[in-house]
Design a protein that fits this description.
It is a single chain. With 216 residues, the chain is mostly helical. The chain has 7 helices and 2 strands, in the order ααααααββα. It has helices spanning 3-18, 32-44, 49-53, 60-81, 83-87, 97-128, 162-204, and strands spanning 132-143, 149-159. A two-stranded antiparallel sheet has the order 1-2. Strand 1 and strand 2 form a beta hairpin. Helix 4 runs antiparallel to helix 6 (97-128) and helix 6 (97-128) runs antiparallel to helix 7 (162-204). The longest helix is centred in the last third of the chain and has 43 residues, at 162-204. The chain is elongated. It starts with a helix and ends in a 12-residue tail after the last helix.
Length: 216
């Protein structure tokens, strides 16, 4: 069978599989439509706009819950994007020039998406994991039975720059709505780009409207 026939066969097999495969926390995506499904699942997990708007430095626990939720979503999102290369693998010399251009555009969008989400994740990192210093809190001397003395030191970790931590918290609260919308728009745009890529691939293969995947 020709390479083109093999490609079409893999495409049809992937399309048939998409209708059966469940994508969730325990089942990673292996084809483009499944990757889009996973991204939409993560989008649905974002804290609501009302919850985001209510963030305040007067409620640190609520702020940290919000940050941890976003951090978990972004880790899953970036991990999901790594499956795009797997789902669209084709030996480069066998890939027609126009399909290579489509894949290049998709890769560029992934790079842009990662850069945009890093803006949020970096800020969250400064809030949840500020720089700490090890500080001596207490020193005591214990008299041992043999008459010798032993010194015991008690250390604790303290925030290196409390004022900077407070500034990062205040900035997060004031920008939270914008940062949430940045994530929503970025993830939705990524799904749209994947749609455009699949349409371009299907058109190049002479099958407009047919979903395309190189997963096999």
């Amino acid at each position: 069978m020709s390479k083109k026939g093999d490609t079409n066969k893999r495409t049809r097999a992937a399309d048939d599989t998409d209708a059966e495969v469940v994508v969730d926390d325990s089942n990673p995506p292996l084809a483009m439509p499944q990757i889009q499904t996973r991204i939409k699942q993560l989008l649905a997990r974002l804290p609501s706009k009302d919850v985001t708007a209510a963030l305040t430095v007067d409620d640190i626990p609520a702020m940290e819950i919000w940050c941890r939720t976003i951090r978990g979503i972004l880790r899953n999102y970036n991990l999901t994007l790594n499956f795009v290369a797997i789902a669209n693998y084709q030996w480069e010399p066998d890939r027609p020039g126009h399909t290579g251009q489509s894949l290049g555009a998709l890769r560029n969008q992934i790079s842009l998406s990662t850069a945009q989400t890093n803006i949020v994740s970096n800020h969250i990192g400064r809030v949840l994991t500020p720089t700490l210093d090890r500080q001596l809190m207490k020193k005591r001397t214990v008299q041992l039975e043999n008459g010798e003395k032993e010194e015991i030191y008690v250390y604790t970790n303290v925030v290196n720059d409390p004022e900077m931590l407070m500034l990062n918290r205040e900035q997060l609260c004031s920008e939270a709505i914008y940062k949430r919308q940045l994530l929503v728009s970025t993830m939705e745009q990524m799904c749209l780009c994947m749609d455009d890529y699949q349409k371009a691939e299907a058109g190049a293969a002479g099958a407009d409207g047919q979903r395309f995947s190189m997963a096999y």
